[in-house]
Amino acid sequence: MWSRSLALALLLLPAPALAGVKENVAALAPQGLVLVMVARDNALVAQNTDEPFVPASVTKIVTAWLAMEVLGGDYRFKTRFYLDDKRVLYVRGGGDPFLISEELAPLATKLVAAVGRKPITGIVLDASYYPSNLRIPGIEDTDEAYNALNSALAVNFNTVYAVRRGDKVRSAEKQTPITPLAIDQFRLRRPNGSSRISLSQDPMVSLQYAGELIAAFIERAGGRVKGKISTGPVPEGLEPVYVHQQSRALSDILVELLRASNNYIANQVFLEIGGHRLGGPVSLEKSLQVANEMLAAHGLAAAIHLEEGSGISRNNHFTARGLAKVLELFAPHAGLLRGRDGGMNKTGSMEGVSTLAGYADTSGHGRVRFVISLTSNDDKMRFRLLRTIESGL
Questions:
Q1: What is the pLDDT of residue 377?
Q2: For labelling alongside 88, which of 30, 62, 80, 149 has CA 20 to 30 A away?
Q3: Would you say the pTM of this structure is higher than 0.85?
Q4: How many CB atoms are closer than 10 A to CB 307?
């Protein structure tokens, strides 16, 4: 009955009004891909929708849908801590994407309460949940923050935010202590001024920084760390003395992921989809297997092609109708999308690619799903097209 009523409403839409929207869209961006859909299969606007397009960060909508389906909105990442009889602290990473300074401060307080204030004689970092040769397609060999390496155990999105003045380096965040490695990396890689750099070039550098920052927060919490920081496996049979659950549920993490469009967070979440369903260690192959099985179950095997979960790879390809179908499936969680314009949408940008997709509220048809893709870097045009859709329908 609902679909028949909707079909009748479509028939009653004044033809000049719908034609006017199509004409305005074509006038603004004649080469642009624009699809606007209501209900399941009803397209109000369908311009240049035959060819697949590169989605860029709009890919994160698909990752968010997969994560909500496989992990659930209440899922929480875990980091485990072990203490042996020599008071060596072992830290086993679980791929927590939000192991940031604001999380490490209360974590350290609880850890010190669990292990006591006697000196810790060393810290051993176990990042074996992620294989050492893991690489994400599209991540480049640069120190830009968006190219941060994914890791089972990384802090502050595997980046350092600091300020350099001559030979002096200080943290650019009051909540983050500066560490010896952070100082060395900034002196090596950045001139004067403030900036955020990734630690993606060497996984061992990334782990060392994680260990140094954890140690600094333990000291802040009243504990003591005397020994060196190293890497290695947790000894067999050793039980955790403290298991830290991320304070943010997955649904909260997805809000930040979609809002800030953080590639590191996106692929941490994407990798956990495979690890959770098929067991560790994680791998891109496991996550792609789970994703492709779910896409195929909804008839989307040919419409959504993923290489990774953030959109940084140009080898991701979607069809407009395929993404519109994902938006239909994701609709119960539409509130997780917090667009730059205050709407429920997600942008994507890379050289020669400008995308926008999500939900729009119209006076004549209520909430519609839309997909916009432009082969340009015209950031404003995609929103002009969205305003045309909202006001015309």
A1: 85
A2: 149
A3: yes
A4: 18
